[in-house]
What we know:
By secondary structure, the protein is α/β, with parallel strands linked by helices. The chain contains 16 helices and 15 strands.
Amino acid sequence: MRKIFFAIMAIAAIVFTSCGGADRAHQLKVLNWADYMDEGVKEGFEQWYFEQTGEKVQVVYETFDINETALTKIEVGREDYDVFCPSEYIIERMLKKGLILPIQKDLIPDSIYYFDNISPFVTAKFQQMAPTPDVQVSDYTVGYMWGTTGFIYNPQHVNAEDLQSWSAILDPKFENRILMKDAFRDVYSVLVLYAYADQIEQGLENRDELVRNITPERVAAVKEILLQAKKQICGWEVDFGKEEMTKGKAWLNLSWSGDAQFAIDEAAEMNVVLDYIVPQEGSNVWFDGWVIPKYAKNVKAATYFIDYLCRADNALANMDEIGYVSCVGGENAAEEMLAGQNNAEEWPETVDASYFFGEDPIEVDGQWLDPHALHLNPVYYADKSTIDRCALMHDAGDAQEMLLEMWNEIKLAR
Length: 414
């Protein structure tokens, strides 16, 4: 989740039972992002698990705000969380370090097997995290939520035509009106595509390779762009961007699609219109997913929990509550997911979501829908033409220090 990416760590435990002296065979320890699950879905798991297994389990639910801090609790502290929801680059890092257990999907009976509800699009993207070609990433992790990176903007001050390129951050008419997400990986991953747009157009570079392989030359190119953009940037925000946008203090906010939808909804309650756009050079497509960490004590309950979250009704409830888009959309779940979202009155323009729901027509409420032309929220489901220009963000590895150094120099520059 990207909502509060660099906030100060706050492990705010919502504990349904005490940790001390607990019988771990009947306790499930969950570590998830703050505000990233519907309360009803969370609270319904204990009863559902009892109905399926005849066994009682008590959920200890803790939240985190920083990927790296949560990972340290597992890697260094050997904390025995049973199920954890990190972002894609942390999943990739955990795979490299052998910190994830395989998901024992054969524990789940066919009658309640929901793992296949994940969109094949997500599974294919996750496979790009494989540390070696022989590793099947879907054996270790299951997608939860996903989205893109783009601009939240106020149409009262900014035309969509001005935002077709990431070069908008260089436009002097936006001086002191742009908020930049304080997330160096995400910002680098989109601006490197802008920096090498001509080479991409000529076929000399490709987006996936540009985002995956971080070099001093590429970091220098992004640094130069950000230095030129400094006059336009009025702040480096963690979670206050939506408020500043609603008040009109900022006109643009480089942000994630989930935050964009949250901001759009909040602004609408104040009769303020905001919108979201992904520039033409391309962007990153990001994911959060569930894993069972190496030191888990209740693998069975963890496996059931992940499967339970793949159920279409739970996926829709989570989407409605948190404003992010679920990875659920496979063949067995497409009808139910679309019945809850496809709405021509609310979304008169269509999007090509065939990449997510598949190529074949889908029967929903007695009508056959063409996945190439669905009436869906375009913030949630970007058109295929946009997705085709997006690349997956990866673990920076040894290049992380180089990125951090660049980021700090940019923020301190005058």
